[in-house]
Amino acid sequence: MTAVDDARALLTSLTDAPIVGVWSAPGRANLIGEHTDYNEGFVFPFAIAQRTAAAVALRDDDVIRVRSTFSPDAVEVSLAGLDAAIAAGGLDWAGYPLGVAWALRQAAPDAETRGVDIALASDVPVGAGLSSSAAIEGAVASALNDVWNAGLDKVALARVGRVAENDAVGAPTGIMDQMASMLGVADAATFLDCRSLDTRAVPLGFADAGLSILVTDTLVEHAHSTGGYRERRDACERGAAAFGVSSLRDLTVDDLPRAEQILDDVTFRRVRHVITENQRVLDTVAALDADGPSAIGDLLVASHASMRDDFEISVPELDLAVDTALSNGALGARMTGGGFGGAAIALIPTGLVPAATAALRAAFAASGFRAPNIFTVTPSAGARRDV
Ligand code: ADP
Ligand code: MG
């Protein structure tokens, strides 16, 4: 059963009204470009095959009712009471779909809002750094955009998802995840300029080259709200302020010698990560265009070293995952996501995946680390209507 089938079945158990359609949106992995988003820089994520689906039926009243396979309880709010419900908070998981409805109505005031039942199902792992949150936002935003005739394009729907997550759920995230989920293309990654929101789907050619992306989820908890994340953002702001620019996006590798002169050592290394990471994203896109995917391995390795040594957001489990993948045939590997835990990715010949997986399990056991979750992800299509 796919998420689409599961959402359909759940909707049938919820209402006798006919199904209007099913929409779905994927999770994402970030190939390269870490902690660059809030510095208005470059990121390069891809949508994965795992998706969240939203099946919709119309209602005769003005109630939005949401139900997910994650929870036995349906949550319902009247359209008239939606603003108050969002302001009151405490909606738990329902804050994502109801927050999307709320944000969509703000973004498209002429939308023909009406009561709906929305049934949600997903095969995106939650909290594994694959953005199940962007998947649920993208599925619900795509569904309501059509059902309510809101007429928003995919970038506008990504913004709706971000507003829902920031202002309704209260999670201070950038827009990378939503853009990747909305705009994904099979066997391509989305080059995103976080300042202009310009995007380009860049072919990856992994399938033709026989390459896979192997994810090692260390299951080490990462909390963005901890001081570590705040400290990194503050250091970036200090660095930009010292140069009199609005964000580190305005600096390039040519500014590094001066940065080393005017910044303290820690701030300099934080700034050097962001500046060089932006350059690595550009270099990765150029290498893919010119030479194909086997040319990007060293950039992934350099990205990891920069996060480990300059930005100091890696942990021993992530370093072990990267080193073990590299010594078992990976062309490149790096931690992905915000850091302090979470997952690492490796670009590796598909035929080597079983042996590398075994080696990773053995290495984690030998180090006394918790057994990781290891699986491949496939660059896949973005949000769409399925039924
Ligand atoms: P992730 O890294 O997976 O995006 P987040 O904490 O950002 O982790 O988002 C996960 C949260 O999103 C879940 O705890 C839940 O509240 C909500 N969520 C994601 N997918 C679903 C779903 N299919 N049904 C209900 N809630 C979901
Ligand atoms: Mg998330």
UniProtKB/TrEMBL annotation:
<dbReference type="InterPro" id="IPR013750">
    <property type="entry name" value="GHMP_kinase_C_dom"/>
</dbReference>
<dbReference type="InterPro" id="IPR006203">
    <property type="entry name" value="GHMP_knse_ATP-bd_CS"/>
</dbReference>
<dbReference type="GO" id="GO:0006012">
    <property type="term" value="P:galactose metabolic process"/>
</dbReference>
<feature type="domain" description="GHMP kinase N-terminal">
    <location>
        <begin position="96"/>
        <end position="184"/>
    </location>
</feature>
<dbReference type="InterPro" id="IPR020568">
    <property type="entry name" value="Ribosomal_Su5_D2-typ_SF"/>
</dbReference>
<dbReference type="InterPro" id="IPR036554">
    <property type="entry name" value="GHMP_kinase_C_sf"/>
</dbReference>
<dbReference type="InterPro" id="IPR006204">
    <property type="entry name" value="GHMP_kinase_N_dom"/>
</dbReference>
<dbReference type="InterPro" id="IPR014721">
    <property type="entry name" value="Ribsml_uS5_D2-typ_fold_subgr"/>
</dbReference>
<keyword id="KW-0963">Cytoplasm</keyword>
<keyword id="KW-0808">Transferase</keyword>
<dbReference type="InterPro" id="IPR000705">
    <property type="entry name" value="Galactokinase"/>
</dbReference>
<dbReference type="InterPro" id="IPR006206">
    <property type="entry name" value="Mevalonate/galactokinase"/>
</dbReference>
<comment type="similarity">
    <text>Belongs to the GHMP kinase family. GalK subfamily.</text>
</comment>
<dbReference type="GO" id="GO:0005524">
    <property type="term" value="F:ATP binding"/>
</dbReference>
<dbReference type="InterPro" id="IPR019741">
    <property type="entry name" value="Galactokinase_CS"/>
</dbReference>
<keyword id="KW-0418">Kinase</keyword>
<keyword id="KW-0119">Carbohydrate metabolism</keyword>
<dbReference type="GO" id="GO:0005829">
    <property type="term" value="C:cytosol"/>
</dbReference>
<protein>
    <recommendedName>
        <fullName>Galactokinase</fullName>
        <ecNumber>2.7.1.6</ecNumber>
    </recommendedName>
</protein>
<keyword id="KW-0460">Magnesium</keyword>
<dbReference type="Pfam" id="PF00288">
    <property type="entry name" value="GHMP_kinases_N"/>
</dbReference>
<dbReference type="InterPro" id="IPR019539">
    <property type="entry name" value="GalKase_N"/>
</dbReference>
<dbReference type="GO" id="GO:0046872">
    <property type="term" value="F:metal ion binding"/>
</dbReference>
<dbReference type="Pfam" id="PF08544">
    <property type="entry name" value="GHMP_kinases_C"/>
</dbReference>
<feature type="domain" description="Galactokinase N-terminal">
    <location>
        <begin position="19"/>
        <end position="57"/>
    </location>
</feature>
<dbReference type="GO" id="GO:0004335">
    <property type="term" value="F:galactokinase activity"/>
</dbReference>
<keyword id="KW-0547">Nucleotide-binding</keyword>
<keyword id="KW-0299">Galactose metabolism</keyword>
<dbReference type="Pfam" id="PF10509">
    <property type="entry name" value="GalKase_gal_bdg"/>
</dbReference>
<keyword id="KW-0479">Metal-binding</keyword>
<feature type="domain" description="GHMP kinase C-terminal">
    <location>
        <begin position="287"/>
        <end position="365"/>
    </location>
</feature>
<keyword id="KW-0067">ATP-binding</keyword>
